[in-house]
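Need residues for this backbone.
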């Protein structure tokens, strides 16, 4: 663990279609999701010599969010103090592998396993504050596969965690996981304000559990309005699923006209906007490299978040 205070920074790793982010600060290193394969995040942690991990938070049980966790848990070079995850009854092969890997990590190095990632979850630590804004405890305890009074079964996505990382009033990032409408409804009911300067957009800018264009736009609009971000980030593969979809982009811009977009991989159809549209100015390269893309670093500074495409080793 670092012996002196360092300014926090969060790296949103380029893992293709998937989500993985790593926080570094005075309190140590925290991993948020791991992508579908462990090679990207393992390589990053090894090359930067961050092999002591205070906690790993897995937003939900989809492979593109938890698949890489197995690699880290089984690698004896890493010490992971605690893993927080909501259980999933689907017993997909990747979730079964995660369960076995957690058992092995617990046996080998005492990794603590917490089966609940909910609004009452508190991480006692130095450095940046980590808050779980969804799901509420009642939903996390019932879990995916259960049926509430509304009659619609909960899924891995509807119990997905939304996590906010903040350091002071001007620096905050909301990791959206794969939240859906019930999360927004819950925030309204509880009068919670999930504001953040940056939003890692859920579903990689894709469909939030519906194919209805009007519902997609409404979800993206309402989420952007309630969060109020300066930056909206899409962790994507440049060709898979054609994300971020145009319906999401237009709705986000309607809700926040001054927002700036960034993709870990920029789809070909969106490159035409770079240099012409202020919303895509973050992808402008200052050198002769053309369009900038790749892993994204947010540095938490006194004046606010500082964005850059990370120069990783």
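Answer:
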């Amino acid at each position: 663990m670092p012996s002196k205070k360092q300014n926090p920074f969060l790296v949103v790793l380029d893992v293709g279609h998937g989500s993985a982010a790593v926080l570094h600060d005075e309190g140590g290193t925290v991993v948020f999701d791991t992508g579908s394969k462990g090679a990207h995040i393992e390589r990053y942690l090894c090359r930067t010599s961050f092999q002591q991990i205070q906690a790993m938070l897995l937003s939900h049980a989809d492979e593109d969010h938890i698949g890489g966790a197995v690699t880290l848990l089984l690698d004896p070079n890493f010490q992971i103090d605690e893993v927080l995850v909501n259980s999933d009854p689907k017993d997909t092969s990747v979730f079964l592998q995660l369960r076995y890997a957690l058992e092995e990590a617990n046996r080998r190095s005492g990794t603590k396993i917490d089966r609940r990632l909910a609004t009452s979850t508190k991480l006692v630590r130095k450095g940046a504050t980590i808050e779980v804004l969804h799901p509420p405890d009642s939903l996390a305890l019932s879990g995916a596969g259960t049926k509430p009074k509304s009659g619609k079964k909960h899924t891995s996505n509807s119990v997905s965690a939304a996590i906010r990382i903040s350091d002071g009033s001007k620096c905050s990032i909301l990791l959206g996981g794969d939240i859906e409408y019930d999360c927004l409804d819950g925030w309204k009911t509880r009068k919670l304000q999930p504001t953040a300067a940056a939003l890692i957009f859920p579903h990689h800018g894709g469909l939030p559990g519906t194919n209805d264009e009007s519902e997609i736009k409404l979800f993206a609009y309402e989420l952007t309005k309630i969060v109020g971000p300066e930056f909206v980030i899409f962790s994507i593969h440049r060709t898979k699923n054609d994300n971020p979809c145009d319906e999401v982009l237009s709705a986000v811009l309607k809700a926040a006209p001054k927002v700036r977009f960034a993709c870990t991989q920029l789809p070909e159809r969106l490159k035409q906007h770079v240099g012409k549209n202020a919303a895509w100015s973050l992808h402008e390269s200052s050198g002769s490299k053309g369009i900038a893309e790749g892993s994204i670093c947010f540095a938490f500074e006194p004046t606010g978040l500082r964005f850059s495409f990370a120069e990783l080793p």
